[in-house]
């Protein structure tokens, strides 16, 4: 689908993946939803990981082009399960999109054992202190 864009006062053609439909107040972009979410499941993903990513993709499949949604879904799972950090704009976008998904996962997470990370120097110091008390 070709669109026109003005650059330096001249109209320039550009390609867009979706079809833009203009209304008075907003521009809507139709997105191809014929692709199969299941085809993006990888052999190494745990069930928990896949279900969270699948729920995210299903919730937003009609709002983003396929490639962008796959990327956002992976980022969402990386943030939720691995604690990854991304640039602020990405974190904000994913936070907004995540409001609609993951409620079951978040409830289960509340009852799971939480890991506590300790600096190696603190752990070594605690071990030394423990050895001194035992001697």
Automatic annotation (TrEMBL):
<dbReference type="Pfam" id="PF11952">
    <property type="entry name" value="XTBD"/>
</dbReference>
<feature type="domain" description="XRN2-binding (XTBD)">
    <location>
        <begin position="37"/>
        <end position="121"/>
    </location>
</feature>
<feature type="region of interest" description="Disordered">
    <location>
        <begin position="1"/>
        <end position="30"/>
    </location>
</feature>
<protein>
    <submittedName>
        <fullName>Partner of xrn-2 protein 1</fullName>
    </submittedName>
</protein>
<dbReference type="InterPro" id="IPR021859">
    <property type="entry name" value="XTBD"/>
</dbReference>
């Amino acid at each position: 689908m070709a669109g026109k864009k003005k650059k330096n006062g001249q109209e320039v053609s550009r390609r867009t993946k979706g079809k833009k439909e203009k209304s008075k107040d907003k521009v809507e972009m139709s997105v191809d939803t014929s692709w199969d979410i299941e085809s993006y499941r990888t052999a190494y993903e745990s069930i928990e990981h896949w279900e969270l990513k699948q729920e995210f993709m299903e919730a937003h499949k009609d709002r983003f082009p396929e490639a962008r949604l796959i990327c956002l879904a992976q980022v969402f799972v990386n943030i939720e399960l691995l604690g990854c950090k991304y640039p602020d704009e990405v974190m904000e976008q994913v936070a907004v999109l995540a409001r609609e998904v993951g409620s079951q996962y978040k409830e289960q997470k509340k009852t799971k054992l939480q890991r506590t990370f300790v600096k190696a120097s603190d752990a070594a110091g605690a071990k030394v202190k423990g050895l001194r008390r035992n001697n």
